[in-house]
Amino acid sequence: MTVFSDASAFSSFSADDIDAAKRFYVDVLGLELKDEAMGAIELGLGGGGVIFIYPKPNHQPATFTVLNFPVSDLEAAVDELRSKGVETKIYPDSEFPSDERGIVRGGPDTGPDICWFRDPAGNVLAVMSDPRG
């Protein structure tokens, strides 16, 4: 065992507008948040996990998925995002072939059905069929 095996790890990423991030993660995604030191926010995730989002004036959006949301009903989740004005087709079909709503269909060798979207800071997030069923 190492000192890391018992550590309560968490992830973090930056945003250029913390107020817009708060509105998005609370009003659109329905997550709980707490204000933290130095303008950061802590997002409470299902299952007890947390993510910290910190302000960064020279923020560069992540070009990879920083947060995945496994859900039992992917189509309903995508419809909910779209009804709240979230663009869910962010990649061209030449990169990730998807339906008109942005859902990429997985399979036994390709993983779960998934749909990517961006937060107000441009970070890439995903909602996917829960592989646990």
UniProtKB/TrEMBL annotation:
SUPFAM superfamilies (alphabetical): Glyoxalase/Bleomycin resistance protein/Dihydroxybiphenyl dioxygenase
Pfam families in the cross-refs: Glyoxalase (PF00903)
PROSITE patterns, per the entry: VOC
Domain of life: Bacteria
Residues of the signal peptide: none
Domain VOC intervals: 7-130
InterPro entries attached to this UniProt entry: Glyas_Bleomycin-R_OHBP_Dase (IPR029068), Glyas_Fos-R_dOase_dom (IPR004360), VOC_core (IPR037523)
Protein name: VOC family protein
